[in-house]
Amino acid sequence: MARLGSCEYSIVLYLMNAAVTGMYEIVTTEKEFASLIGYQDDRLEEAMQNLIQRNIIHVKVHDQHQPKGRQSLRIGMQYNVHLWQLDFDKDVTSHDAVVFPFKRESNVHYLQPREPDLTPTIRHPTPTWRRILETFLEGRDDLSEQDLQNAERDANILVDTHPVDQVLIMLRHFGNRVPTLSLLASAWQHFQTLFEEETEKVDILEARTKHMEMDHRLRDAAELLLQQKDQLKLNEEEAGVLAILFKHRHPRRQLFWAFQSRGRYPNLKEFFEQNSFLMLPVTSSGMVFKRRPHQD
Q1: CATH code assigned to 6-97
Q2: Domains of the chain, residue spans
Q3: pLDDT tens-digit map of 202-237
Q4: Superkingdom of this entry's organism (predicted)?
């Protein structure tokens, strides 16, 4: 729409809102409609005549014998916008085509067009080959245009020849140690073997660190009770158990054996309850007992 008055905009917006709710035409009187949109009768009549001439709305008058203003009107939008008579001037701008629903206290706010959102979604995910390419390009800002073209080509090849999730894991693990995607594809077995060796070392190191932390935790708990043995009235045997746990190379294994005879150490009941989760079950030969994996 171009250069309509405020009353004309109000009429059009009211009819559009009615159409959204399923009322494609409304039946009212001129006085009633004027009060609904907040304008005087004569201003409403002038605005409606202008919209009718422009073929933007259509109006049917009923009850011709009723006085003017009380006649029943059937009003609706002309939804075929190609029939609208807009009569643009030569100096028309984009602002002339804006409907202003955000007018507040005489301040008009223009909505700027939104930039397209390129964020991947479930319905529109990033292409698989592009995920590989983006992962490969992380930290590589000095590639030439030819290198980028080769990387894009090789990414499409990897999608068809190798498991995508495994390719992404490899790229994140090796980083710049993979000079090109072509080399990763051609030496896949080499990189896979190297990946397994390196991750196995990491797993062993992490497990060892965790065991050491748990050993230290048990030693600290035993040392604390030894310092309080007089207040806790520990007997010689109970103090001896704590001393073994504090000094032994494998305190969690010793805790397992002491726990089996916990009835002999009544003053250590709370200690066993708080630290039993740290004990490491062992066999009679001293070997660590490995639990079977849980079966559903």
Answers
A1: 1.10.10.10
A2: 6-97, 128-186, 199-278
A3: 556 676 777 788 888 889 989 998 898 888 889 999
A4: Eukaryota
Q: How far is CA 229 from the centre of its chain?
A: 55
The dihedral built from the CA positions of residue 34, 37, 39 and 44, taken in this order, carries a sign that is negative
**Mean pLDDT value across the chain:** 78
The whole-angstrom separation of Cα 84 and Cα 94 is 18
Closest CA to 266 of 291, 217, 232: 232
In angstroms, the Cα distances linking 15 to 23, 83, 84, 86 are 8, 17, 15, 18
Cβ-contact 2, 96 below 8 angstroms: yes
CB neighbour burial string for 255-281, b if at least 16 within 10 angstroms, e if fewer? bbebeeeeeebeebeebeeebeebbbe
pLDDT < 50 regions, the chain: 1, 98-105, 122, 283-296
